[in-house]
Amino acid sequence: MQIELRWLRYVVAVVDEGGMQRAAAALHMTQPPLSRQIRELERRLGTPLFTRRPLSLTPAGAVFVAHAREVLSSVDELVVATRATSTGEVGELAVGYILSGAYDTIPRLREAAEAAFPGMRHDFRELWPAQLDADLLNGELDLVIAHTMPARSEFRREALRTDPLVAVTRPSNAATSSGGPVMLGEAFDRQTFVFYDPKYAPEHYALLAKALDAGGGSHHVRLDMTPGLRNIALPDDYSFTLIPESMAPFLPRTVREVPLDTSNLPALDVELVWLRERESPVLLKFLTIAREVSADHGWLPAPRP
Q: C-alpha dihedral over 295, 161, 289, 131, to 10 degrees?
């Protein structure tokens, strides 16, 4: 047999209000239609739910009411979950990011998103740029947070933070004693620039090569470093590498940050990148959070007047 949801609400209202008349008032109806509906339900069930005069639940009625409360609670939860999903407050989001994002950018975004929307579930994945590009295109990722992502017509992109470059070298390198920002070409002239194999992030390496050219001076290049801050192993006191400024607070004790005069150097422009055709409510909510975090922490330069 089919039981209408309204019948469950009618029976529960009678129990909660303690009578037909008060239940009818709470349900914004008159008593005769309410009594008829409950009698029709009892007829279909083949058993009375209430004894009359005085009104009380039968054993079968008590079982009905207990299950009816569970059903009505589930329905209410269904409505709340559906509405929350439609607005992006609940849902799943797969976010890919580059290595440098793991130290400052992603932790701040994760914390803000979890605080604002506890029902939003995130799958954060650290990947190389080529994999980020492929997984965004094939739908494995909903959003990418990276710099130097390819220019594609199907991508939408938005600036998240500008990350200036800083130099990293051994503590005994003369450049560490400057006490302030140094000119890249002067402080590290004729020293060895160390980096990992460009095949992992060719666009990133190209940007660093551009920075070396813009900084002036001459540099030897050595490509054998293992990616990651924990793996920075400079061969001697006359070698250095370049990293985003956001990674500098997390450097191991074996190396030191050297601030650079960045007036003529390119910066790493970290972007939010997603597919135009996959703008889900949960993605749009996350983008809003990312914009707020970016503004709160001053990740983007102030617009020119």
A: 180
